Amino acid sequence: MTDPCLFCAIAAGQIPSQSVYSDDHVYAFHDINPAAPTHILVIPRKHLSSVCDAGPDDEALMGKLLLAGQQIARDQGLAADGFRLVINTGDNGGQTVHHIHLHVLGGRQLTWPPG
Ligand code: AMP
Ligand code: ZN
């Protein structure tokens, strides 16, 4: 049996989160340890451990994830000044939770390159 997944449990409402968007396919909530004034995570309800776990059947779902990030950025008032969408992947990418999540970051000038 595999370990319970934190973000599957959050999407199912078994672990509390501060929701900002929800539909049949994706769920979005505030990051518990924000790295910017606005820091939201958007996840597919389907468990995919990382971008590398997505296949051709997930093409539409990956599109929904990105478009949800766009809409949330607009709703949060980030679109005019700009924002960043990030998907950390694997160890070198800094991924710590192994369920795909799109970070929506904004509300300050973000630097590049990332650390
Ligand atoms: P990553 O490092 O890209 O895997 O991002 C994981 C993110 O999940 C981090 O920014 C954490 O602060 C965030 N996180 C971990 N646990 C929770 C939680 N229970 N609720 C909200 N965000 C969380
Ligand atoms: Zn999961």
Explain what you see.
The structure is a single chain. With 115 residues, this protein is an alpha+beta fold. It has one domain (6-106): HIT-like (HIT family, subunit A, 2-Layer Sandwich), CATH 3.30.428. The protein has 3 helices and 5 strands. The chain has helices spanning 6-11, 59-75, 90-93; strands spanning 19-22, 26-30, 38-44, 83-86, 102-106. The chain has a 5-stranded antiparallel β-sheet, covered by helices on one side.
Brief digest:
The chain has three helices and five strands.
Fold topology:
Layout: H1 6-11, E1 19-22, E2 26-30, E3 38-44, H2 59-75, E4 83-86, H3 90-93, E5 102-106
Antiparallel strand pairs: 1-2, 2-3, 3-5, 4-5
The structure holds adenosine monophosphate and zinc ion.
Zinc ion (ZN) binds at residues 5, 7-8, 47, 99.
Mean pLDDT: 97
What binds here, in terms of ligands, is: adenosine monophosphate, zinc ion
At CATH level 3, the topology is: HIT family, subunit A
Structural class: alpha+beta
Helix-strand topology string: HEEEHEHE
Name given to the CATH homologous superfamily: HIT-like
> What would the principal axes of the Cα set say about the shape?
globular
CATH class: Alpha Beta
Give the distance, in angstroms, between the N- and C-terminal Cα atoms: 35 Å
The radius of gyration is: 14 Å
Would you identify the regions where 5 or more consecutive residues have pLDDT less than 50? none
Helix content: 10-25%
Whole-number count of domains? 1
> At CATH's second level, what is the architecture?
2-Layer Sandwich
Strand content range? 15-25%
| Order of neighbouring strands in the sheet with most strands | 1-2-3-5-4
Number of helices: 3
| Major sheet description | 5 strands, antiparallel
Q: How many strands? A: 5
